[in-house]
């Protein structure tokens, strides 16, 4: 169990509004929602960031995330949404236990606001970078 607020939720030490649970995954309502239906989906495995998660937990999360998204859509009636997963304090991660946010994006403006400072990809640098990543993934 992670020594975080989400570890305490998993152990039952603090309450939450539970949405889903199986052997490897738990989901509950965010306590400070950006929009109605804002749900957090977490692995029971106490990994701090996504890169530290086992393949088994990752697969379990991947299996149920779309299902939980469908439930959020069905219950809120809001078809558009963002799935957000922050890794590290500098990337806005406040709780050091992997969590996926499902955040409905209603047409009236609630939900996630995103800054997207895009640049052009340099083709030569892109080819080199992709080659390095392919090697790292072997
Ligand atoms: P992040 O910035 O990605 O780490 O997001 C952490 C999220 O956890 C925030 O949206 C908080 O509102 C939420 N949160 C913190 N404590 C609780 C809690 N006790 N129950 C439900 N959600 C929580």
Secondary structure layout plus pairing:
Blueprint lengths: L4 H7 L6 E4 L3 E5 L9 E5 L11 H22 L4 E4 L15 E5 L18 H14 L2
Antiparallel strand pairs: 1-2, 2-3, 3-5, 4-5
The chain binds adenosine monophosphate.
Describe the structure.
The protein is of the alpha+beta class. The chain has one domain (5-137): HIT family, subunit A (2-Layer Sandwich). It has helices at residues 5-11, 55-76, 123-136; strands at residues 18-21, 25-29, 39-43, 81-84, 100-104. The protein has a five-stranded antiparallel beta sheet with strand order 1-2-3-5-4, covered by helices on one side. The protein is globular, with a radius of gyration of 17 Å. Bound molecules: adenosine monophosphate. Adenosine monophosphate binds next to loops.
């Amino acid at each position: 169990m992670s020594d975080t607020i989400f570890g305490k939720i998993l152990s039952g030490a603090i309450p939450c509004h539970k949405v889903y649970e199986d052997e490897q995954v738990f989901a509950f309502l965010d306590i400070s929602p950006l929009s109605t239906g804002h749900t957090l989906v977490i692995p029971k495995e106490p990994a701090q960031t996504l890169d530290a998660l086992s393949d088994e937990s990752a697969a379990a999360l991947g299996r149920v995330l779309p299902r939980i998204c469908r439930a959020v859509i069905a219950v809120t009636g809001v078809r558009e949404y963002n799935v957000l997963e922050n890794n590290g304090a500098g990337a806005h991660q406040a709780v050091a236990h992997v969590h996926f946010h499902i955040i409905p994006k209603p047409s009236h403006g609630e939900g996630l606001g995103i800054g997207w400072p895009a640049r052009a990809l340099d083709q030569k640098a892109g080819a080199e970078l992709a080659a390095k990543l392919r090697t790292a993934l072997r």
